[in-house]
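Sample entry (495 residues):
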Amino acid sequence: MSGFASVTVIVPFHNAMKDLDACLQSLNLDQTESTVRILLVDDGSSDGSSRIAAEWQSRFPNQISLQATKHEGPGAARNLALASVQTEYLTFVDSDDRLAPGAIDSLMRVAAEFGADVVVGKLVTAPVPVTKIWDEVFEGGDRRLDSLNEARALIHSAGACGKLFRTEFVKRSGAQFAPTGLFEDIQFTVPLMLQASIIGISSQLTYLYTSSSVHESRMNARFTRPAHFFDLLNALEKISECSAQLHSHPDLLASFVFRAVQGALPQAAGSLGKRELSRWFAEISALLRQFDIVDGLEHTRWDYVYRLPLLAAYANDFDAYRKPASAIEQVDISESGIYLKFRSEHTGLSALPRELARTNYYSAHLLKAKQIKDGRLRLRIRVGIPGIPGALLRRTSIQLVKSRLLKRVGSPASPRRCGADFVVFELNFKRPISKTVERRSTLRVGLASCSESQLFRTLRPTDKFLATGNEILPLANDGKTIQLKLETGERNLVG
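Predicted structure, serialized as tokens:
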């Protein structure tokens, strides 16, 4: 032992026979430098995982304790364990996850160096990696945060796992998990992150969050039943009440609440009955209106599949939420972005600042490239704005931005046909291209309003694109080929 302070690792489990042994092996009890205690909580298991836990306790009787309780969920199991913690620090591991090698020591080292109330470690998902909005926080190495404002995206790391907490800080705050339902972590972790005087960042890989296609664990299920939407609502209301009492970082809390709600709104529309949906929506609307909308939208998505339901909820417009297209009068395009103009009868939406109804998120896909007479090109291009009916794009035109070699390749094209959420344009080049286009020349696509003469310049999107593909066009006169690449901003859409 090197003299590190002591830490308790709390591991709740329910019917985790397939995962528990591997989880406990990852704790490396005989290799860590820290003084580690393991608190296993059997949440009413009936599959044999209790036997595995008992075997581990018999192997490490001085380090592992085992408690048992009736099945209520991981929140109640963690609360039971919290009352028994006597070490200086504590952390959590779910039974279907793993700790990375050296994780406990790296967390404890950062806690000791900075005197942190909370230490946040780097978490990855397996077997499929998932990019998280706060990942960039770990790029600068181990460091100290004196305020969550120094890494604002970290507020969205709301899980208790992969973090180290000072026990005295947790008990003084009175933090508890929601005893039942999903999203039990939120009302524990978020208030502690907001209250912490010092937050430590451990850049070392700490936690492996695993998802299994073979079985579905209660620990990682989300929105599989209608009740889960109300679990989220209750959790968000709890942390809102807590923050109001503490007067801490209302702007960060707004960002967390809006992002959490934005992910739930599209799913709820297809999962809840009309009466349940109406009640849930009304309560969500009341919750959102407690916050400043500009603060709330800081980390939300720009595409309208998610943005429009969120705006409708803030405006308490249930009709616009259920039928988003009915609230849109037209799509306006200018050099500063793409905007939705709402119908006047939707007064709450219409009253919102225009900037809140902006998106730079659209997709373009080259469907066909054909050489026509005189060596000119004809391109057929499909363009869509996710969530926006194709009929609303009829007043939009498309034009190719000049490439490095071509100053003017085509006139603006009007829609040839429209689909449910896209329009198809056909654009003819003005002159032959065989002598003016090199291999790998790049053509950029831009949108323009039909009422404006100037081309809407290359968009600068803020989110991921939808469509990719490529088209190789043979040139009849010299037998060479070129590859056409359609770009938006700095991202290739086709090519």
